[in-house]
Amino acid sequence: MMWFTADLHLGDTNILHDMDRPFDSVEEMNRKVIDAVNECVAADDRLYILGDFTYRLPLAEAVRLRERIECQNVTLIRGNHDGDWEDPDVPQIWEDVRDYLEIAPGYAKGHRLVMSHYPMLSWNGKARGAIMLHGHIHSRGDRTNARNRDRERPIYRYDVGLDANDYKPVSRDQILNFFGL
Protein backbone atom coordinates (compact mmCIF):
# COMPACT_ATOMS: atom_id res chain seq x y z
CA MET A 1 0.00 0.00 0.00
CA MET A 2 1.11 3.57 -0.67
CA TRP A 3 0.81 6.18 2.09
CA PHE A 4 1.35 9.94 2.13
CA THR A 5 1.86 12.56 4.80
CA ALA A 6 3.51 15.97 5.19
CA ASP A 7 4.32 18.65 7.70
CA LEU A 8 5.09 16.43 10.66
CA HIS A 9 7.29 19.21 12.10
CA LEU A 10 8.66 16.78 14.68
CA GLY A 11 10.54 18.65 17.38
CA ASP A 12 8.85 21.97 16.54
CA THR A 13 7.51 23.61 19.71
CA ASN A 14 6.10 26.56 17.74
CA ILE A 15 3.79 24.35 15.65
CA LEU A 16 1.89 23.35 18.79
CA HIS A 17 0.43 26.83 19.28
CA ASP A 18 0.78 28.16 15.69
CA MET A 19 -1.49 25.38 14.38
CA ASP A 20 -3.27 24.70 17.67
CA ARG A 21 -2.21 21.06 17.57
CA PRO A 22 -3.91 18.96 20.28
CA PHE A 23 -0.76 17.92 22.13
CA ASP A 24 0.49 19.10 25.53
CA SER A 25 4.17 18.97 24.59
CA VAL A 26 6.46 18.47 21.64
CA GLU A 27 7.47 15.08 23.08
CA GLU A 28 3.82 13.99 23.12
CA MET A 29 3.36 15.24 19.54
CA ASN A 30 6.47 13.37 18.35
CA ARG A 31 5.31 10.16 20.02
CA LYS A 32 1.67 10.32 18.89
CA VAL A 33 2.50 11.28 15.31
CA ILE A 34 5.02 8.44 14.96
CA ASP A 35 2.59 6.03 16.66
CA ALA A 36 -0.12 7.04 14.16
CA VAL A 37 2.26 6.42 11.25
CA ASN A 38 3.20 3.01 12.64
CA GLU A 39 -0.47 2.09 13.24
CA CYS A 40 -1.42 2.86 9.63
CA VAL A 41 1.68 2.00 7.62
CA ALA A 42 3.08 -1.54 7.57
CA ALA A 43 6.83 -2.13 7.55
CA ASP A 44 6.73 -3.26 3.89
CA ASP A 45 4.35 -0.51 2.67
CA ARG A 46 5.61 2.59 0.87
CA LEU A 47 5.48 5.95 2.68
CA TYR A 48 6.04 9.33 1.07
CA ILE A 49 6.71 12.23 3.43
CA LEU A 50 6.05 15.40 1.46
CA GLY A 51 8.28 17.72 3.40
CA ASP A 52 8.96 19.23 6.79
CA PHE A 53 9.75 16.01 8.62
CA THR A 54 11.39 17.93 11.48
CA TYR A 55 12.09 21.53 12.34
CA ARG A 56 15.22 22.92 14.00
CA LEU A 57 16.35 19.60 15.42
CA PRO A 58 19.92 18.40 15.64
CA LEU A 59 20.63 15.84 12.94
CA ALA A 60 21.14 13.01 15.45
CA GLU A 61 17.66 13.59 16.92
CA ALA A 62 16.05 13.71 13.46
CA VAL A 63 17.74 10.39 12.65
CA ARG A 64 16.45 8.85 15.91
CA LEU A 65 12.90 9.99 15.11
CA ARG A 66 13.09 8.53 11.60
CA GLU A 67 14.37 5.24 13.02
CA ARG A 68 11.22 5.01 15.19
CA ILE A 69 9.10 4.82 12.02
CA GLU A 70 8.82 1.11 11.27
CA CYS A 71 8.19 1.45 7.52
CA GLN A 72 11.37 0.62 5.62
CA ASN A 73 10.39 2.18 2.27
CA VAL A 74 10.24 5.90 3.02
CA THR A 75 10.83 8.61 0.43
CA LEU A 76 11.28 12.21 1.54
CA ILE A 77 10.06 14.93 -0.79
CA ARG A 78 12.00 17.88 0.60
CA GLY A 79 10.10 20.79 2.11
CA ASN A 80 11.22 24.24 3.15
CA HIS A 81 12.34 22.99 6.59
CA ASP A 82 14.23 19.87 5.48
CA GLY A 83 18.00 19.80 5.52
CA ASP A 84 20.44 18.35 3.05
CA TRP A 85 19.84 14.64 3.48
CA GLU A 86 21.96 13.84 0.42
CA ASP A 87 25.23 14.95 2.03
CA PRO A 88 27.54 11.89 2.08
CA ASP A 89 28.30 12.51 5.77
CA VAL A 90 24.60 12.31 6.73
CA PRO A 91 23.19 8.88 7.65
CA GLN A 92 21.14 7.40 4.81
CA ILE A 93 17.79 6.99 6.55
CA TRP A 94 15.61 7.55 3.46
CA GLU A 95 15.10 5.22 0.55
CA ASP A 96 15.11 8.29 -1.69
CA VAL A 97 15.17 12.09 -1.32
CA ARG A 98 13.60 14.31 -3.98
CA ASP A 99 12.26 17.79 -4.48
CA TYR A 100 9.47 16.55 -6.77
CA LEU A 101 8.25 13.13 -7.82
CA GLU A 102 5.73 11.67 -10.25
CA ILE A 103 4.31 8.15 -10.02
CA ALA A 104 3.06 6.59 -13.24
CA PRO A 105 -0.70 6.11 -13.73
CA GLY A 106 -0.46 2.32 -13.35
CA TYR A 107 -0.14 2.62 -9.55
CA ALA A 108 -3.31 4.65 -8.89
CA LYS A 109 -6.17 3.34 -11.05
CA GLY A 110 -4.90 5.16 -14.13
CA HIS A 111 -4.13 8.45 -12.39
CA ARG A 112 -0.64 9.94 -12.29
CA LEU A 113 0.38 11.07 -8.78
CA VAL A 114 2.39 14.28 -8.75
CA MET A 115 4.12 15.05 -5.45
CA SER A 116 5.71 18.23 -4.16
CA HIS A 117 5.85 19.82 -0.74
CA TYR A 118 4.29 22.92 -2.29
CA PRO A 119 0.80 23.00 -3.84
CA MET A 120 0.74 23.89 -7.52
CA LEU A 121 -1.83 25.70 -9.63
CA SER A 122 -0.96 23.51 -12.58
CA TRP A 123 0.98 20.23 -12.88
CA ASN A 124 1.88 17.55 -15.38
CA GLY A 125 -1.30 15.76 -16.43
CA LYS A 126 -3.70 18.08 -14.57
CA ALA A 127 -6.09 18.16 -17.53
CA ARG A 128 -5.84 14.38 -17.84
CA GLY A 129 -6.76 13.39 -14.27
CA ALA A 130 -3.36 13.59 -12.55
CA ILE A 131 -3.61 14.10 -8.80
CA MET A 132 -1.39 16.72 -7.15
CA LEU A 133 -0.37 15.70 -3.60
CA HIS A 134 1.23 18.34 -1.40
CA GLY A 135 1.65 19.73 2.09
CA HIS A 136 3.01 23.11 3.19
CA ILE A 137 -0.26 25.04 3.68
CA HIS A 138 -1.33 23.34 6.94
CA SER A 139 -5.02 23.10 6.05
CA ARG A 140 -7.16 22.58 9.13
CA GLY A 141 -9.48 19.63 8.71
CA ASP A 142 -10.49 18.71 5.18
CA ARG A 143 -11.95 22.12 4.16
CA THR A 144 -9.35 22.73 1.47
CA ASN A 145 -9.55 19.20 0.11
CA ALA A 146 -13.37 19.25 0.15
CA ARG A 147 -13.38 22.58 -1.71
CA ASN A 148 -11.24 21.01 -4.45
CA ARG A 149 -13.60 18.04 -4.73
CA ASP A 150 -16.96 19.80 -4.38
CA ARG A 151 -17.05 21.53 -7.74
CA GLU A 152 -18.74 20.87 -11.05
CA ARG A 153 -15.26 20.02 -12.32
CA PRO A 154 -13.09 18.85 -9.37
CA ILE A 155 -9.49 19.91 -8.95
CA TYR A 156 -7.51 16.77 -8.17
CA ARG A 157 -5.23 18.40 -5.62
CA TYR A 158 -5.00 16.96 -2.11
CA ASP A 159 -3.25 18.28 1.01
CA VAL A 160 -1.74 15.19 2.66
CA GLY A 161 -0.45 17.23 5.63
CA LEU A 162 -1.09 16.11 9.19
CA ASP A 163 -3.22 19.13 10.05
CA ALA A 164 -5.65 18.32 7.21
CA ASN A 165 -5.91 14.60 7.99
CA ASP A 166 -6.49 14.11 11.72
CA TYR A 167 -2.72 13.80 12.33
CA LYS A 168 -2.46 10.54 10.35
CA PRO A 169 -1.04 9.49 7.00
CA VAL A 170 -3.45 9.06 4.08
CA SER A 171 -3.47 6.01 1.80
CA ARG A 172 -3.62 6.08 -1.99
CA ASP A 173 -7.03 4.38 -1.78
CA GLN A 174 -8.39 6.98 0.66
CA ILE A 175 -7.37 9.74 -1.76
CA LEU A 176 -8.90 7.96 -4.77
CA ASN A 177 -12.11 7.30 -2.82
CA PHE A 178 -12.22 10.92 -1.65
CA PHE A 179 -12.44 12.02 -5.29
CA GLY A 180 -14.74 9.13 -6.27
CA LEU A 181 -12.12 7.62 -8.58
From TrEMBL:
This is Calcineurin-like phosphoesterase domain-containing protein. SUPFAM superfamilies: Metallo-dependent phosphatases. Residues 3-154 form the Calcineurin-like phosphoesterase domain. GO terms for molecular function: hydrolase activity. It holds the Pfam family Metallophos. It comes from Collinsella aerofaciens (strain ATCC 25986 / DSM 3979 / JCM 10188 / KCTC 3647 / NCTC 11838 / VPI 1003).
